[in-house]
Model the fold of this input.
Amino acid sequence: MLRELLTKWFPGEVAVTASLRAPSIVALKIISDIDPSTPVIFCHPRQVFPESQNYRGEIVDLLGLTNVKVVTRSDPVTRKRPFERCERLWSEAPDGMGRSKETIHLNDTLAPYRCWIKAAYHERTVGTAEQRFYCYGGKLIVDALRGRPRELIDRFMQAHQLPYHPKVSRRKKRAQVDQSDAPDIGWHF
Done:
């Protein structure tokens, strides 16, 4: 499906929005195998941690992506726009003590493209395969990995030796710690 979009239906008219989560990396791997010059727009919250910047550089180099843009601030928002194109991201506090939702408006950024592949996965996708394609404001929008289970994403990441974000790697290691070795913190406040 992605090969047809990139090479036959919309050659040179496709943009991809991505984050640094595993489903985004899977989509970028597939797209880079088809055409590494496809415009990739990394959507990040205002606070981007150095480990995220380093990981993004590692992924860009590993996949050979040649047309990359980073968006951390929104396009100007005006009420007169009939169609709003945006990505909603989780933003973590620098002290690690909470997170909030940020919306990155992309009307101007996506204006030159007729097809938008949404791969900035910040929430679990739900829905059916039929909902992977829709038209909105004259643009074909594709959510190629909608509803794909986490296990499938993990298998793809492992099969292609794609690294996870360092934060996820640390979380996975912590989850593997034997519960008997974990300190008993109880429920005392």
About this structure: Residues 173-189 have pLDDT under 50 and may be disordered. Strands lie at 14-18, 40-43, 68-71, 86-92, 99-105, 115-119, 133-136, 139-142.
